[in-house]
């Protein structure tokens, strides 16, 4: 029967091409607009570390003497707190993280020095965040302790400087220091750049910068502090630092600490440890208050920072409303199309077709329109995503259709058109056979 | 035109009528809000910066900072830049409008205050007011003897030595009005990190380098601090000189010290363009959506109209046979569409207002101005009339003879 209905549906679509084109257009435009923005929302609001994110935590301790227990603690740690917590090794893995701008010279003659971004982290960063390597690997804990002059570079930089060859063992010049490459990453593009998220509540919804690419070079934490001394930026200070850019003893917060805690007992213990640490620092006179510590998990931290840009959220609402209007439109057009064929329906009913059969036939026709509309909607979605990739926003290169969203495009198109077809199909199968036959 | 018969007909075609109404209402609600957001973005993009944008260049160099003689280097740079033909003013600065990264600080009116009165951004650099082309509206500009070296200020602040800190300050008119409403700001004191500073001048406007709250966009202060961080502002004599001066300036700076990295080199027009790129993209997208929405709505009305006409061919034929003219039929469908559109617009306006309330809560958008209601209504009436014109003309073309068939 289904084949027969499909045949009828094709026949009917060909008969009134203008109306068919209008319906396909309505579905395609609605699906195209909503899937473009929903894809962006989907890509930007996903879990950057699936399967592991619930074990990753971000401790906050408020060292600000003017802070109060009632406020939220500062978004980053001061150097001493960060290093104290890190050296206590109470977590399964933990990494200190700090970013800076650095001048990069290459041994290759003729290339001018460039300013690039540098990440400095302790070695657990790679294992904790599943960072993939193409050549070589991370440095060792001894390298961290010895402040070894080693570096890991991204695939991007390796392409640029060494044409993608295995560059392990070669040397780069970071500011005035020579560093040896020990590892080259595979393309790695976390979305968002979660380990650098902070200060989202001060961004006024303009959080697209959380989706920038990872830094070009990654050095051991303490190596980075030495190599690029004087060039670090504070998140905030409660007094002017003595030497701007050199923040180790400054009254500033500027370091992030990430901890991996594999089970609930460890989380509770770590939480207690962080609180105890603050209390102990208060007792020692370094902190003025101690009740203000937090330990958020990764997704909680991203949520707290409102990583999804408000522009994107607004666009998503708009697109869904747009799909709604296209659906109302579609209902009208389908109604027009189905009821125009009242005579044909009457004839089929008179020849013995049940109401259910008529209903099914029209739903098949609606579904077919949805399928065709979905195909055009898919093309429009691709065009929309292409348009977004041309935009000067940090997440532009992420805007691509993945398999789940591709499936959803067609499901949504068919679902929407079936929904829209429901009312017209019900109306159609209520046509009284005899009354229509009379008018033939 | 008699409206009652139309209403009674509509009552018998509830679904079709309802669909037209819903479509117009939704379109009205969404387009009103989208156009409002677009206008907000356009307003933002044309925000006055207070600086002489068309004649300004910005150059930022890296790695001059840790050389020992950075002060004399900066003086050399400034002197060289000043000598380029076409250059009017130069300054070594700490930050610039549209630069995105900024230094900000809380301001108090009384040192005993627990919380700051407001948060303002800090501009500094000798010759900054003429170099940016700021307009002084009261008091005086900072004088050379007001200035301290940035490094000395930092050292002084760390040592809590009030003498080595700046004593005077220039602020914007908006900031002055916010701090001392209705009063003269000159001679008043503000406290920054518990140190007093006296306001000696007020400039008309100077926006912050990064704006996260539009209401605080011009809370800016200018400090008498000499900067030597390799960030320069160049003001040219005419807008036409800009490109040439920029190229000459870069060549000159490279000549003085070839080991520096140029971080930024652009005109202020380009900086403004980049600064508002998100707003521009959003406005463009919304305009696209609005146009698409209006087209889709119009097509929907065309579709429903044609269906309706087809369904009522016999009825039209009967009316024609009974003496109705073509114009009568045309008017009938036009009046009907007008009625439906009116209901749709009323519902749509209520909906638009509701959506606006939601946006006010979640996106801090202001209230929808009243002008949107009449303008939106007229626009939708026109679209409705245009869309129904085709089907109505087809209806008017129905010959009276149809009536005699199949009755």
UniProtKB/TrEMBL annotation, chain A:
Pfam families: FtsX, MacB_PCD. GO terms for cellular component: plasma membrane. InterPro entries: ABC3_permease_C, MacB_PCD, Macrolide_Exporter_MacB. Residues 20-220 form the MacB-like periplasmic core domain. Its main location: membrane. PANTHER family: ABC-TYPE MACROLIDE FAMILY EXPORT SYSTEM PERMEASE COMPONENT 2, MEMBRANE COMPONENT OF TRANSPORTER-RELATED. This is ABC transporter ATP-binding protein.
TrEMBL record, chain B:
The chain crosses the membrane at residues 15-38, 281-310, 338-359, 371-389. Residues 291-399 form the ABC3 transporter permease C-terminal domain. It comes from the Bacteria. Belongs to the ABC-4 integral membrane protein family. Pfam families: FtsX, MacB_PCD. It comes from Dyella japonica A8. It is a multi-pass membrane protein. Residues 18-248 form the MacB-like periplasmic core domain. GO terms for molecular function: transmembrane transporter activity. This is ABC transporter permease. InterPro entries: ABC3_permease_C, MacB_PCD, Macrolide_Exporter_MacB. It is found in: Cell membrane. GO terms for cellular component: plasma membrane. Keywords: Cell membrane, Membrane, Transmembrane, Transmembrane helix.
